Amino acid sequence: MNEYERRLNSIKSLMDYAVPEGRQAEAEDLLDIYRHDRIALELLQEFYSFLPDARSDWVREIRLVRRRQGMFLLAAMTEVSGYLYLVSGEGVEFQGMLAEGPWDRDLLEFFGYSDREQFRAESGSPEGCQVYEPMDSDQDICPSCHVATGELHELGCPVELCPWCGGQLVYCGCRYDRLGIEVLESEEDLIRFEEILNEQGRIPYSPEQRPSFLDDGPGVLID
Ligand SMILES: [Zn+2]
Ligand SMILES: [Zn+2]
């Protein structure tokens, strides 16, 4: 069983308790759309683990409110409400109701809102946000660290290319040549490497960097 299958099974067993009678099939259809999407699966697992209104409910659709540098502000839409979640490769956090907007000022600022008023005006209704596309079909997102086209990868992302040799930065030997050392062991080595890397100019994500097997169709996964 791979990571996705384990995650799917655990969400399905949570859904047995959470989803109201008669809605199971529709709720599972949505799960199926996102079966290869780590970000949406994080959200669904969180929703069904801690039902935000503490009663039976199910997610009808997921909307993308904003996204920046691998962080996604998503809305889980149910029949009665929209619930905001901040999701990234690092985890997931409930952020309140879509109609009210998030409380966290840093979060509002990070996504380009000056305050909750502006959030409510621009994004407070589902019509103001597009449906969230499953990641495996979105070419403009790094499949590993989830930054968008033109943004720098998270340092350590296996998709990032080396600006010296053009190979995979996490595997090539350039770090040792550039630093003049045999092994990279201390925090200082890492900081020094990041400095010379920035001086050289890092290569931001673009869709051509996607490993080609990712786009070969359904059923092919990265692990
Ligand atoms: Zn990346
Ligand atoms: Zn290299």
Layout of secondary structure:
Blueprint: H1 3-18, H2 24-33, H3 38-49, E1 61-68, E2 71-77, E3 82-88, E4 91-97, H4 105-110, H5 116-123, E5 130-131, H6 174-179, H7 187-200
Antiparallel strand pairs: 1-2, 1-5, 2-3, 3-4
Helix pairs in contact: 1-2, 1-3
This protein binds zinc ion (ZN) (2 copies).
Can you offer a commentary on this structure?
The chain has a domain at 3-137. The chain has helices at residues 3-18, 24-33, 38-49, 105-110, 116-123, 174-179, 187-200; strands at 61-68, 71-77, 82-88, 91-97, 130-131. It has seven helices and five strands. α1 (3-18) runs parallel beside α3. A five-stranded antiparallel sheet has the order 4-3-2-1-5, with helices on one face. It is 32% helix and 14% strand. With 223 residues, the protein is of the alpha+beta class. The longest helix has 16 residues, at 3-18. The chain is globular and about 65 Å long. The chain binds zinc ion (2 copies). One zinc ion (ZN) is lined by residues 142, 144-145, 147, 153, 157, 159-160, 205.
Describe this protein with a few key phrases.
223 residues; alpha+beta; 5-stranded antiparallel β-sheet; 14% strand; binds zinc ion
Model regions low in confidence, pLDDT < 50 over at least 5 residues:
215-223
Q: Helical proportion?
A: 25-40%
Gap between N and C termini: 11 Å
Provide the structure class.
Answer: alpha+beta
Number of strands: 5
Oligomer: single chain
Mean pLDDT: 89
The Cα radius of gyration reads: 20 Å
In percent, how much strand structure appears in the residues? 5-15%
- Indicate the overall shape: globular
- The number of helical elements comes to 7
